[in-house]
Amino acid sequence: MPALWIAHVTVTDAEAYGKYAELAGPAIAAHGGEFIARAARYVQLEGKERPRNVVARFPSVEDAVACYNSAAYQQALDHARGASERELVVVEITD
């Protein structure tokens, strides 16, 4: 079943995070991920507000997790560490 990769991010170093974004996109695409929302307009109703919210759709939870654990994504993530505060969850889509 398809899955959503949902990230909530506060960027603290725009230059370093820009490098993360540059590398993360191709890594996500290589695992069948496609962005469906990326730093778009949002309304925070509950919880900690993060000004950058990203949703990507993957063919499965396993594909999303494989992407996260891949060498290419981990290389991208090296640029986000210390340049952002973030939460990331993968949720399976159910009918």
Automatic annotation (TrEMBL):
Pfam families: DUF1330 (PF07045). Residues 2-92 form the DUF1330 domain. InterPro entries: Dimeric_a/b-barrel, DUF1330. This is Uncharacterized conserved protein, DUF1330 family.
